């Protein structure tokens, strides 16, 4: 007998008929021999309606009263669903967050879960009842009983947290789409349903997946190894499994806030190849990495930084044993990259750096917490470690530093983030292992469509590219001539973190220029578009004190990313992405990579086309068009 948490979103419980249909599904799952905790959202657009009511009375309603108001939506659904279950002869009991004992931070309207009491739920389950829990809500403490909510869309988070606390066999998220798609079907109707995705990939695709699954829910699933499936409420189709290797036992205390960083990794077996002054035009990255892929050189980080004038720097890291081959390819291609339109410009120059190491911090908890990257930079600065390259993704920040400083950097980072040394650590990423845990449990909760057949037949190596995401809501900032010394990145990103500005891609240029006797580099990064102007102002104010130059803002950008755990150790994936863009005359303005993600910044008006051509290039498009539910 399995213990399952099922969550039904607003649309799935949008009317009496739909609540009755949900009751039927729940009933069938119990009949198949399972114990069930059901988490529900407010009916249909109830929460939006409540927000409107509040705004009609106050332009700035108290956050405490907002929680009091918004938490009522879910309370309606739990009572009605319990009644519907009782009506068909299934014992059930509804419970609010307070009644369960879902204890959160005292942060109204955006609380994170600290702890969940399981005793009362277990008592009812043991009595054969279905426990129907209100999603999205909690209380500040058993004594205070102040009602909190988790932030919009928070019921997914409630469901997965309950599954973690109860050590449920798995958690099912029922929604109005059939699962997770390879890209946004509104832009690419040929998007296909995935049968599975790892939680790491899902987190990297946050901007794509957020509409289907709250990133905080994925974070909990990943941290506690909760097998998760996203399925349609209207069918018995198997949906998409979100898989996680079983993590080491993690405490259920401070469930959502325990730690932002899970691991500090390092790799000293790295060398960097940089090509300086390559022309800023479509096809350059494609040509370079195409040749590199043909030579079967596997690259790790790639960054391309923007520059004043019309040339870029592209740098990438490789493992030391293949450095010679990588260098030869770069040297052979450099003369051909000379800027044709302006033959007087110096030709591209190849720069090799062997004595480098890559240190990274990773952890799902850094999503939406701008202070974490800043803390890493501050730690390195305090340890006197200069950062040569920075590359970021949603759940990872990697810095290239001098090899001689690697030990010091790692020790300082472990200290700051309280990571025990001695964890199995080769520095390079462990190849993601798909969880097979869920295949042992009865997946066919409704008694039919055993979903296990594909689980058993799924090869254990994930595809190089699982999905493609487009983010049109970013702006790019470039700071010219930032002094190249320890502590600059810490000051810069610490300043932004203080103002709660989340930074996405961060790129530091390779080219170092001496201005006023100080070596300087450009740093570029992206932020949410709505933070663009504010960020520019903040940085301009700090310019004199910190000694950097002009701040350039470009809001007309788009970021397109490919994500896939299978790209690790597979040459040619980056080249294929860049080639798809080059064929369509799309210029790449910035490149940043992590082990399982490659992102390119392109001009905003080419964003949609970029997404389409990349999705097609990786063979993700299906023959059937996906119909987006109204
Ligand atoms: N009812 C809440 C909202 O609409 C929570 C949820 O549906 O997940 O945001
Ligand atoms: Mg929702």
From TrEMBL:
Keywords: Amino-acid biosynthesis, ATP-binding, Diaminopimelate biosynthesis, Kinase, Lysine biosynthesis, Nucleotide-binding, Repeat, Transferase. It catalyses: L-aspartate + ATP = 4-phospho-L-aspartate + ADP. The keyword Transferase applies. Coiled coil: none annotated. Residues 273-353, 361-428, 477-560, 562-630 form the ACT domain. It is an enzyme of class 2 (transferase). GO terms for cellular component: cytosol. GO terms for molecular function: aspartate kinase activity; ATP binding. Pathway: Amino-acid biosynthesis; L-threonine biosynthesis; L-threonine from L-aspartate: step 1/5; Amino-acid biosynthesis; L-methionine biosynthesis via de novo pathway; L-homoserine from L-aspartate: step 1/3; Amino-acid biosynthesis; L-lysine biosynthesis via DAP pathway; (S)-tetrahydrodipicolinate from L-aspartate: step 1/4. SUPFAM superfamilies: ACT-like, Carbamate kinase-like. The keyword Isomerase does not apply. Catalyzes the phosphorylation of the beta-carboxyl group of aspartic acid with ATP to yield 4-phospho-L-aspartate, which is involved in the branched biosynthetic pathway leading to the biosynthesis of amino acids threonine, isoleucine and methionine. Tetramer consisting of 2 isoforms Alpha (catalytic and regulation) and of a homodimer of 2 isoforms Beta (regulation). Belongs to the aspartokinase family. This is aspartate kinase.
């Amino acid at each position: 007998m399995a213990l399952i948490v099922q969550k039904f979103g607003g649309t799935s419980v949008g009317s009496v008929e739909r609540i009755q249909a949900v009751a039927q599904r729940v009933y069938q799952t119990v009949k198949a021999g399972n114990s069930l905790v059901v988490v529900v959202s407010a009916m249909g657009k109830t929460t939006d309606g409540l927000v409107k009511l509040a705004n009609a009375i106050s332009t700035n309603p108290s956050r405490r009263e907002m929680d009091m108001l918004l938490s009522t939506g879910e309370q309606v659904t739990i009572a009605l669903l319990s009644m519907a279950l009782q009506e068909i002869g299934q014992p059930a009991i509804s419970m609010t967050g307070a009644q369960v004992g879902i204890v959160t931070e005292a942060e109204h309207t955006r609380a994170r879960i600290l702890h969940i009491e399981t005793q009362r739920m277990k008592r009812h389950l043991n009595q054969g009842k279905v426990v129907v829990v209100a999603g999205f809500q909690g209380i500040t403490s058993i004594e205070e009983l102040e009602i909190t909510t988790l932030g919009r869309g928070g019921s997914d988070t409630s469901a997965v947290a309950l599954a973690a606390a109860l050590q449920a066999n798995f958690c099912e998220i029922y929604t109005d789409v059939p699962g997770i798609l390879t890209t946004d079907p509104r832009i690419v109707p040929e998007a296909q349903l995935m049968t599975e995705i790892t939680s790491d990939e899902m987190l990297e695709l946050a901007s794509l997946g957020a509409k289907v699954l709250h990133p905080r829910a994925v974070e909990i699933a990943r941290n506690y190894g909760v097998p998760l499936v996203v399925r349609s409420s209207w069918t018995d189709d198997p949906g998409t499994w979100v898989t996680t290797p079983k993590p080491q036992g993690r405490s259920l205390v401070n469930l959502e806030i325990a730690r932002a960083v899970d691991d500090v990794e390092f790799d000293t077996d790295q060398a960097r190849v940089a090509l300086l002054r390559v022309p800023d035009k479509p096809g350059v990255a494609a040509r370079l990495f195409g040749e590199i892929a043909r030579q079967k050189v596997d690259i790790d980080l790639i960054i391309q930084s923007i520059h004043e004038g019309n040339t870029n720097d592209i740098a990438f890291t490789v493992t030391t044993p293949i450095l010679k081959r990588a260098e030869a390819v770069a040297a052979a291609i450099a003369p051909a990259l000379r800027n044709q339109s302006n033959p007087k410009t110096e030709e591209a120059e190849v720069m090799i750096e062997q004595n480098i190491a890559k240190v990274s911090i990773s952890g799902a908890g850094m999503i939406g917490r701008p202070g974490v990257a800043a803390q890493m930079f501050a730690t390195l600065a305090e340890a006197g470690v200069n950062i040569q390259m920075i590359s970021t993704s949603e759940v990872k920040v990697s810095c290239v530093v001098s090899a001689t400083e690697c030990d010091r950097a790692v020790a300082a980072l472990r200290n700051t983030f309280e990571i025990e040394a001695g964890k199995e650590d080769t520095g390079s990423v462990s190849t993601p292992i798909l969880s097979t845990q869920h295949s042992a449990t009865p997946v066919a909760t409704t008694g039919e469509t055993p979903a296990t057949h594909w689980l058993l037949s799924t090869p254990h190596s994930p595809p190089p590219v699982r999905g493609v995401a487009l983010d049109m809501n970013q702006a790019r900032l470039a700071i010219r001539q930032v002094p190249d010394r320890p502590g600059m990145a810490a000051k810069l990103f610490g300043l932004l973190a203080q103002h709660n500005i989340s930074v996405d891609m961060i790129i530091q240029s390779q080219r170092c220029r001496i201005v006023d006797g100080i070596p300087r580099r450009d740093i570029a990064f992206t932020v949410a578009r709505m933070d663009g102007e504010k960020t520019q102002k903040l940085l301009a104010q700090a310019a004199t004190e910190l000694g950097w130059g002009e701040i350039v803002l470009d809001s007309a950008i788009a970021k397109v990313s490919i994500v896939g755990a299978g790209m690790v150790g597979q040459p040619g994936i980056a080249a294929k992405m860049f080639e798809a863009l080059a064929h369509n005359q799309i210029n790449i303005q910035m490149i940043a990579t992590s082990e399982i993600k490659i992102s390119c910044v392109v001009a905003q008006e080419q964003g949609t086309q970029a997404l389409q051509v990349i999705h097609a290039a990786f063979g993700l498009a299906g023959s059937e068009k996906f119909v987006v539910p109204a």
